[in-house]
Amino acid sequence: MMLFMPSCKKNGNSIKNFIMIYLYICIAIVVLIIMLYRPIKLYVVANICGVELSFSEVILMWIRRIRIKEVVDGLIISHKAGLGIKRDELEAFALAGGNIKNVTFGMIAAQKAGIELTFKKACNADFNGIQLLEVIQKQGALDENSFK
User: What CA–CA distance (Å, rounded) separates 59 from 39?
Assistant: First the structure.
């Protein structure tokens, strides 16, 4: 007898299934937005400050577990100071465990003191445990051999 009855129950189940799928999709979107909030925020801040940074580069940094905030802050600071440090250099330096603030502020201090300090020399100094900003502030000017 049940075989010949209209399939009202079947239509009710399909609506319930549709609602459940819709809810799962909405929950997934909310979770994705929450997970990507920080990268989106840093992407917007970087672009407002004039740093050329694509959203895909920020997402790739996030996937590689790079300290995105430190890299973006370093890019913004170096851009505003006119240092010309590239994103991939800062990423590699961050992955190697370097102190981005030490290098960027040290390079700015060296620039103000009239010392030619390249990014590579600043990185080497950081890996050797030299606090660039403190050294430049104490001595006022350093000779070039201090950063090799």
Answer: 7
